Amino acid sequence: MQPPAGEDALARAALLTAAVTSPHAAASRPPSRSGYAVSTRGLVKSYPGPDGTLTHAVRGLDLDVSYGESFAFLGPNGAGKSTTIALLCALARPTAGRATVAGADVLTEPHQVRLRVGMLFQHSALDPDLTVEQNLYVHARLYGLRRGYARRRAAEVVEMVDLADRRRFPVRTLSGGMRRRLEIARGMLHAPSVLFLDEPTTGLDPHSRAQVWERLRALRDRHGSTLFVTTHYLEEAENCDRLAIIDHGRLVAQGTPHALKAAIGDDRVVLRTGDDTAALRVVRRVVPLRGGVTGDAAGVCLRVPDGSAWIPRLCAELEGHGIAVHAASATPPTLDDVFFHHTGRSMTTPSSGPPVAGAGEGTPAAESEGGR
Fold this sequence. Notes:
The protein is of the alpha/beta class.
């Protein structure tokens, strides 16, 4: 089930309303870049359920994101990612806790928050009948950029995302990857301090997804942009400097991808032999049962620290017992292993916990997660 189509539209309207109320919106910036681009403490968002109970979409979130950082918010569908984005963009009001974004408080300075952030929505917000440059110009004017500067800025960002040769083409003629790149350009028009990207590559093929990430990395490196990305794609989180894993509205782990995987410790070693049943018995005698040794269709599988160092020893032991080794591999921990370690299930396994959908009426974009 898709989330209600009106949620993204209402969220877009809220951001643009904040912009057009100030003719100098684009000039509004935090006085300094000290502190964090995004900081939350005890952030909570709950909704009343139909039976009088509360649905907790975000539960006590503590988070710090530095300026210029690319940060991934990783979690399965329904984890609370889009609700968090809505809170951080001042599109929904927290039930409890506090948050600052680009130096502005989401509760006491929501207008300033909306002026200082850019947003790439999960669903397209482009007008398919307007050209590339017309879409950009209209958005720039809505954000208060003067006519001349709006045209210059539109020309700059369209170059940034490699769409200058398509600037006079109607958006409906663009591929999915080109449209996503155009939406990134539009989000950068008013030079926001923080660019939020909600599932930026959903529905794109691998080539288009790689192109989008190439542009995002270029934006970060060239302009020092802070990128806050929600995703359920593990490979996308690998592209970021740091990531946080959210599950059932709770933050369960955060750190660099390398550090989180290193904390798991053990590599996965797989051996394919001429007699896997006999090999299983030999390996079980050799390897400490720290991670266990199992046999399945892939062969003999085990988890050990520094798996590549174990392979020569295991091969020698098996050959000493007359068992031929056809193939051996050692794979370091993945982010899916990290997620499993902290939640007890794979990212690809449907959650059996309480849903976090149900944003209710009047909460724009508060929870487009539930139907994702």
